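[Q] Does anyone have a clean structure-token version of this?
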Amino acid sequence: MHSILRKKYYELETQCVIATKNGNSSQEFDEALHRTGEEIVGDVHNKLLNSVTALVDLVSPLYFSSEFLKRLSSTDPSSLGNPISEREFNVARDFVENCLKVNLNKVEWLHIENQIRKSSEGFCISNRDDEHFIFTQDDPFGVTSTDLFVHELGHAADFSISRACNDDSLLIRHISLCETIAYYCQYRYLSESGNPVKRQGSLGTLLFLYLCISTVRYCLNNDVSLNDFDPEVDIDGSDFYEIIDSYNKRGMNGREYISGILNESVKPYGELTYLIFREIAPKFGLILAILFLDSEPEHMIELINTNTINTDLDTFVHAFIPDYFNKINSFESYALKYIDNA
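[A] Here you go.
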């Protein structure tokens, strides 16, 4: 039996699906979902702010070498994709079902020609207990592939498993942990069925994530707001050296290239809180997925069944990865082990 608020939440999700199917914006329903989420768990704003604070501490120890960054940025995007069809969708669904011990036979895939969401070739919209939708869309800069399906079906599995508990607090979850589940499925799939190039390409998001982390680190260490941060002046210190050097080693003007990205894609957030919440929080799931890669699926299912913003993000991380700070200091080696299937 579902609560009144849960029924309301589900109805709004269905409206999001309908809007997306029709090629329309779902913003109105997304905002209503947020308001309903406030009713379900209360004080959502402050709980999300606590997550932002926790994220700063969790990512601060992360440092990459210029050689590692160079390797990631050298990946040829044309080698990462493959044609997608119902066959690839079914292969991906079978994999995720076996991986997380869940039935996904009610999950549907639809390809939409209009680009509904920017910078996204695929996304999953939750719908009721287990009737979720995977959408792919035409994106000139995106890559569609079987492992994209696995990633999005990982989200669908996350929704289905948690909602089977019928615990309303599990409707409002840490985005970092949701992405962890999706990346975990994707990386397990690529470990079994991919190759080093595809595994390397699947970590491409690390490049922008690390740039965002370096920006936050610089601003906090130097007591500079994101608004006052000046890429033309402020990237000559140690925080950005390895990033810039990685592009210099490829024969590019690394300083000019990184300055351009910062001005175009980082500075517009205006405040560090928004940058952390919009960019670092979801992408942090990639970091955790690599650290979880050797974990048994039962460990991930336990994470799914406890993921609520009523519990602080760092509490989850330290409970599920007790030696987190030791592992994060060695993250580069974990990532290389994944790429090379060592």
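[Q] Thanks! Anything notable?
[A] Residues 14 and 127 are 6 Å apart (CA to CA).
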